[in-house]
Structures are given as C-alpha cells and as structure tokens.
Amino acid sequence: MNAAIRPLTSAPMPRRYSLPIGGVAGTSFKHEHLPAILEDGPQRGFFEVHAENYMGAGGPPHRALETIRKDHPISLHGVCMSIGGPAPLDRAHLARFSGLVARYQPALVSEHLAWSTHETSFFNDLLPLPYTKATLDRVCDHVDEMQEAIRRPILLENPSTYVAFRESTMSETDFIRSVAARTGCGLLLDINNVFVSASNHGFSALDYLADFPLADVGEIHLAGHAAQADDEGELLLIDSHDGPVSDAVWKLYEIVVARRGAVPTLIEWDSQIPDWPVLRAEAAAAQAILDRHQAAGARHAA
C-alpha cells in the first residue's frame, strides 16, 4: 500500500523560490570525511546529501548527518524522483522524501530534470527527455506534486546529456524557463553539465548560459568530468564527479557569478573520493570567487 503524503505545514506554499542562504560554497558530505570535518570545526558553507541514502529510519547514516546538521546548513538533493518519467510519481518514495525534509529542514531541496523509471523497471541513471509540450506538461505536473508534498519550492537541475531527440520542439533553456514560470520552482544550474552537454552536442556553452534564466538560479553545482572516445572515435565527455573541477568549468563559473551574483555553490565529488583537504580546497576556490564578486558588488553599491 502506498504511504499517505502529509503536508509539513498548513501554511500556503510559496509560489516563487527565494534564496534561503547566502553566497557560500559547500561540498558533498561523505561519511568517511566526518572525523576530519569535526576536527576542523564548523565550516562556513553547507553540505549536500543524496536523499536516497537517508531513507531508512535510523542507523549510522542518520547519526552522521545529524552530527553535521547541528552546525551546518544541509542541501537535500534527490536523484530518483523521475520527474520526467511517463508514470505518476512513486507516492511511497515521495512520502519518504517529504519525511526527510521535515526531519532535517534543509536550506536547499533539489531534483533532476530527468527520468529513471519505466513501468516496474528502475534505471540507475538520469536519462534525457524530449523537449515537447507533452513533456513540459508532465514535468510541471510532477514538480507541482512534489512541491505540494513538501510544502516548499524545489530547485530543478539541468541535465548532462549524450543524445538529443528529433521530436524536441523547444530548446533546453526555453523548456527549463517554462517549467520555472509555470511551477514557481527555482533552478539548480550545474555548470559542469552545461560544459559536458555543449561538448557532446557541439553547441556553445556560453550561448547556452546567455539564454539560461539565471534570475531563477538558487544553487550552482560544480564537478569534474571524464573524457573518453565514442564508437566513432570522437571525444565524449562523461559527467563522472570523480575529479577536480576543470579550468574551463571554473571560467564559466566566473562568468555566471558575475552575471547572477553570489549564490550557494556545491562541489560534487561522488566517486574516487579524495581526502577531506582536497575537497575542502575545491570549495575554498569557489568561495574565493563568490567573495570576490560580493566585494566588488559592495564597492559598486557604496
């Protein structure tokens, strides 16, 4: 039997996303880093976790997250909601997600513009969508359902893609803009995803970012990617999250922050996990860019 979804509050849900924390940099939270993080003491930034890793009732994962949550904002990042899928959202999964939001009161809540389920099958991947009116209607319905369940707007993340659909009738940026306008959600701009997709499909990352609705961006993701060859021997970039942020992505990030202003920025690193000082240094590099632009903005305002 599907679990009932209970709203977290009776207050009306905000219809537009507002930024809950300032321009700080954070990192993915990995349990193996907990002793080193505690030794460092409270960090300036925030930590992000994948919601699906905490859907059990208790145990070591929750004890570790509760320890981090005492002194730091948390970003709750979903990876399995299948917002773009043809089937209705899994109500039991949505109820567990809502419970995590209630339990940890994260500063940021996000999901992917992707699908990963078909009938009774689950694919351990974030699969791309055709950008059509039918897809737009379905995604907006699912975003509305998710936001009503958790009683707050979410951030929707742009995908990294390796194929495109002939039946698409709008650009990815127009599609994302329409979702935000219709649902009131915010956007999570993954700049590494933009760079990966631009390289794979042969379009300009700068042109994409110039057309992206930056005013709706409430969080930025930065990550590393891997290069390999496709079946024809052409370069193919993979959104691997297994290394440092590339120089090209750092340059795009500088451009975005100059245009959008300082927003929470996460360093994603999900495999081949380095020691904590390496991940901390990546976040410090992002924080330096955020601080520089915030200081410049303050000087101009004076």
What would your notes on this structure say?
Helices cover 39% and strands 18% of the residues. The chain is an alpha/beta fold and 302 residues long. The chain has a single domain, classed as Alpha-Beta Barrel (TIM Barrel). The strands form three sheets. Strands 1-2-3-4-7-8-9-12 form an eight-stranded parallel β-barrel, surrounded by four helices. Strands 5-6 form a two-stranded antiparallel ribbon. It has a two-stranded antiparallel sheet with strand order 10-11. α4 crosses α5 and α8 packs parallel to α9. The longest helix has 26 residues. It is globular. The N terminus is likely disordered.
Low-confidence residue ranges = 1-10
Task: Work out the strand percent.
Answer: 15-25%
Mean pLDDT: 89
> How widely separated are the two ends?
60 Å
Structural class based on helices, strands and sheet pairing: alpha/beta
Shape: globular
Q: Measured on Cα atoms, how large is the radius of gyration? A: 19 Å
| Helix coverage percent | 25-40%
Query: In the residues, how many domains can be counted?
Result: 1
Strand order of the largest sheet: 1-2-3-4-7-8-9-12
| CATH superfamily label | Divalent-metal-dependent TIM barrel enzymes
Q: Which fold does the CATH topology refer to?
A: TIM Barrel
Give the helix tally: 9
The main pleated sheet reads as: 8 strands, parallel, barrel
H-E string: EHEHEHEEEHEHEHHEEEHEH
How many DSSP-defined strands? 12
The CATH architecture can be given as Alpha-Beta Barrel
According to CATH, what is the class? Alpha Beta
